[in-house]
Amino acid sequence: MASQAGSRKSFIDSSINLARSNNFHGLDLDWEYPSTTTQMPSLGLLLAEWRVAVANESSSTGNTPLLLTAAVFRSSDYYTINYPIRVISNSLDWINVMAYDFYGPRWSNVTGPPAALYNPGTTMSGDYGITTWIQAGVAANKIVLGFPFYGWAWTLANANNNGFFAPTVGPAISTDGDIGYAQIDNFIAQNGASALYNSTFVSNFCYSGTTWIGYDDKESISTKVTYAKNRGLLGYFAWHVGADGNWALSQQAASTWGAST
């Protein structure tokens, strides 16, 4: 779609019509992920043309312009292929940085902090990613920090080796190992699981027997929201609120940000 002018126009026009017909505030593009040196420029063309179309629609109808945002990779490059930073800055109202899925049982044979805010000496952290976006030229107040309301479950190779970076033999609980926060909460209660918070990585984990789950709990969420405020970011987002348990994480985030409840 993004590689051809005609299909870009069709997509853009239909998206604007869809947003207006449903009284949406805007549109968010989730392309996971532009991964070649031709796809990144195509993304840039799409965003630039989309912004022009949004402005023209607003001018011709008198409607408030639609917001235009995009979910993006954790860092400003996708494994050395740079995002079109100037176009992103000029065309989008903000970017949603997906600072999660660093470790998971489908691609990691050891346990790990799935959404670490810090991971010294590596590129696998939210702080590293946010820093690359700012250094690349995106204003901090156009950046939204993403965190997960779900975790990843592994089967430990040895129940007695149950910290970060412990050997594993595959997913646990579900086929892929993904598990929502509410389910994690239930798992801890039903199994008397040990639940810990690691302030170095800003990540939570729990384990019972050979089942090990990495996730974000209230401590991690609170620290990440404070981080977003301190770095002057526009805000935070979660994927996804439906996985929350009794709005515990949502309320923790809102309270930390300073929103009224």
UniProtKB/TrEMBL annotation:
Domain GH18 span(s) in chain numbering: 1-260
Secretion signal, residue range per the UniProt entry: none
Keyword Transferase: no
Database matches in Pfam families: Glyco_hydro_18
GO molecular function annotation: chitin binding; chitinase activity
Stored InterPro entries: Chitinase_II/V-like_cat (IPR011583), Glyco_hydro18_cat (IPR001223), Glycosyl_Hydrlase_18 (IPR050314)
A Gene Ontology biological process term: carbohydrate metabolic process
Keyword Nucleotide-binding: no
Keywords: Glycoprotein, Glycosidase, Hydrolase, Signal
Entry GO CC: extracellular region
Protein family (similarity comment): Belongs to the glycosyl hydrolase 18 family. Chitinase class V subfamily.
Protein name, per record: GH18 domain-containing protein
Source organism of this protein record: Populus tomentosa (Chinese white poplar)
